[in-house]
Amino acid sequence: IHSISPRMTDGVNVWIGGDNPFGSDMAAVMVKFTTSQNKNGILGIVGPVRMNYARNMKLLSDARQVLISNL
């Protein structure tokens, strides 16, 4: 996780194949968040290259908002 965080932007991040830190046959969709108590975290989905990226990006974006609003 420590090697991934510096590579991440504030939005939803997508890494596919060789760019993915979890393996070249995989894909990762990840998002960083900071709570109101200044606690940092990363949410992510790791799966096959042929995953539904739009759905997973929306899911992580929504989950990020819930965490930011409630923690």
Descriptive notes:
The chain is an alpha+beta fold and 71 residues long. The chain has a three-stranded antiparallel sheet with strand order 1-2-3, with helices on one face. The chain is globular, with a radius of gyration of 12 Å. It contains one helix and three strands, in the order E-E-E-H.
Q: In brief, what are we looking at here?
A:
By secondary structure, the protein is of the alpha+beta class. The chain is 25% helix and 31% strand. The radius of gyration is 12 Å and the shape is globular.
Q: How many distinct helices? A: 1
Class of secondary structure makeup: alpha+beta
Would you identify the regions where 5 or more consecutive residues have pLDDT less than 50? none
Largest sheet report? 3 strands, antiparallel
How is this fold's topology laid out?
Blueprint lengths: L12 E4 L9 E9 L5 E9 L4 H18 L1
Antiparallel strand pairs: 1-2, 2-3
Features:
31% strand, single chain, three-stranded antiparallel β-sheet, 1 helix, alpha+beta, 3 strands, 71 residues
